[in-house]
Each structure stands twice: as C-alpha cells, then as structure tokens.
Design brief:
Elements: E1 3-7, H1 20-30, E2 35-39, H2 41-44, H3 47-50, E3 60-63, E4 66-69, H4 71-81, H5 90-120, H6 127-149, H7 161-170, H8 183-193, H9 196-214
Parallel strand pairs: 1-2
Antiparallel strand pairs: 1-3, 3-4
Helix pairs in contact: 1-4, 1-7, 1-9, 5-6, 5-7, 7-8
The structure holds S-(P-nitrobenzyl)glutathione (GTB).
Length: 215
C-alpha cells in the first residue's frame, strides 16, 4: 500500500488546498487504498524527510522501492499505473498529460501568486495597488480556459488526470470571488468537487484537520 505525506495541521483549516489533496483524490479515483504519514512543519525540514523531498515539503509518495515528490509527478505515476485517469488512445493520453502540465505551469502560478498575496500581504501599504494586477493575471487565464471549455463537462472528452489537476488548482480561488465571473469554470470546479472520489479525499483531509484542532 502506498504511503503519502500530508500536513499534521493544514494552514488552510481543512479546505483541502494543500497539495496532498490532489494525490488523495487520484488514489480515490483509481480505488487504491493508501496510508498517510502526517508531518509538522519542523519534521518536514528534518533530514529524514528531506531524504524523500529535497525541498522539505509535502506531499511525497512511497511505494515499495519508489519514492516520489512533486504532486504532478505523483498523480501522473498513479494515473499511469491504474485505469481510470488517462485515456487508452495514445494521442488522447498525451493531451490529458498536456492539461496536467497546463494546470501546473500555466494556470497555477498566477493563482498561487494571488492567494499568497491575499493570505500574507493584506497589511502591506502596497496591497491595494498590487491586488488588481494579480487579479487581472488570473482573469486572463480563466477567460482563456472558459473559452476552451465552453459547455463541455471536461477539458478533453472524459474526465482525466488533466481535469483532476485543473480542478485542484482552480478551487484555490473559491474564496476570491473570481470564479463567479466565469460561470462555466465555476460549474466545472463544482462538477469535479461533486465526484465521489473527490468527496472521499476531501473528507479524509478534513478529518486530519479536525483531529488536530481537537488535540
Ligand atoms: N510543486 C510542489 C508540488 O506540487 O508538490 C509544491 C509542494 C508544496 O508547495 N507543498 C507545500 C508545503 O509543503 C504544501 S501545499 N509547504 C511547507 C513548506 O514549504 O515548508 C501548498 C499550500 C499550503 C497551504 C495552503 N493553504 O493554507 O491554503 C495551500 C497550499
């Protein structure tokens, strides 16, 4: 059974924005049970964890003699070794992988930049001046994505690891108000969040947060 790592007490207070969520969701989609090793911020920076993750972060993935870090690589590995997250047709499979990369390297960076500013820079004198530019960068990507998605349920045919990755990236905007400006994207995110595998993954990470808050 694979073991992943996750926050012992996620700073998002159980909203499922930490990147173990996408790994949990992928494992749930393919029906693969998994163990979770919970880590404090201090433990993440210890040599034992850095041996698994050079940057001292979560998530990691261990299965037999394989250790992986980077959520994209982990989800791709899961998708390649189980049915259900990548199409069988070689070209469709390559396109699904392209959507994974698009989520991580084209859509996620402006979203992370905005959410970091909203979390950590609200009290800075220049915050009000910086915010509109950050929001505009996100709107550009959301507009482009919305035009491509149109009325389709998923980005390229059936639900794939590309959608899984994109939905986890986009849902970080849930509290920003920006998704409301793009009803097709908001409905796409809601479709992802309604999947039973997403719900199971979400509940599992929420249970960790709730247990940590009780102790
Ligand atoms: N590129 C790597 C990947 O995709 O796996 C990035 C991994 C990463 O950023 N991990 C973060 C981490 O370990 C947790 S997910 N941080 C601890 C550290 O660097 O010391 C990022 C995250 C954290 C918190 C929220 N939140 O509170 O909403 C959202 C996302």
């Amino acid at each position: 059974m694979p073991t992943i790592t996750a926050f012992e007490a996620s700073p998002d207070r159980g909203k499922g924005h930490a990147r173990d969520m996408r790994v949990r969701w992928a494992l749930e989609e393919v029906g693969q049970p998994y163990d979770v090793r919970l880590l404090s911020f201090a433990a993440m920076k210890q040599p034992a964890h850095r041996a698994l993750h050079p940057f001292g972060q979560i998530p990691t993935y261990e299965d037999g003699d394989l250790t992986l870090f980077e959520s994209g690589a982990i989800v791709l590995h899961i998708a390649e070794h189980h049915d259900g997250l990548l199409p069988k047709d070689a070209n469709a499979r390559a396109r699904a992988v392209a959507w994974m990369f698009a989520a991580l390297s084209t859509v996620e960076p402006p979203i992370v930049e905005l959410s970091m500013a909203m979390m950590f820079e609200r009290d800075r004198s220049w915050y009000a001046e910086r915010l509109p530019g950050l929001q505009e960068h996100v709107r550009i990507r959301l507009g482009e994505l919305s035009r491509r998605l149109g009325k389709a349920d998923w980005l390229d045919g059936a639900f794939s690891a590309g959608d899984l990755m994109m939905v986890t990236v986009l849902r970080r905007l849930n509290t920003s108000g920006l998704l409301d400006e793009y009803p097709d994207i908001a409905a796409y995110v809601a479709r992802g969040e309604a999947r039973p595998a997403f719900r199971r993954a979400f509940e599992a990470q929420l249970a960790v947060f709730n247990a940590a808050s009780r102790s």
